[in-house]
Amino acid sequence: MEKTMHAQTQSETPRPRVHLASRPERQSLAKMVIRLFDHWGLTTADRAAALGLSETNRATLSNYRKGEPLGESRDLIERVGHLLGIHKSLRIIFPHDRDLAYRWMTTPNARFGMSPIGVVRQYGFEGLISIRRYLDFERGR
Question: Rounded to an integer, what distance in angstroms lies between the CA atom of residue 92 and that of residue 82?
C-alpha cells in the first residue's frame, strides 16, 4: 500500500520546466556559433543545415551575425551545444594544429564517406550527434 501511495505522489509532482538560455546567453551563443562557422569555412547552406534551418533562410543567419539572439527553440540550442562540443573535441584532438581542427568539418573523411558537415547536411540532427559521438570516442582513446 505504501508503494502505491509513493507512486501516486511521484506522478502528481510537476515536472521541472526545461530552462532555455536567457536572451543574453542566447546572444552570446549566436556570436560563438557564427564565429565557429567562420573558422570552419562553412557555406551558408552548411550553416543553415547545422542549425536545422532552411537552406534559403539567410536572414536568420545574418541576424545572428548582427548580434540577435538564437531563437527560443530547444532544438536550436541543443544543436549549438553539439556544435560547440564538436569544436571542443577537435581542439583537444588537434592541440597543436588549429588549422587542421578548423578544416576537419569540411574535409572528406574516409570513415564517413564524405565530409563531417556532409553527414550533418544529409542526416540532420542525427548526423550532428553522430559526429559528436565519434569525436568524443576519439578524444577518449
Answer: 15
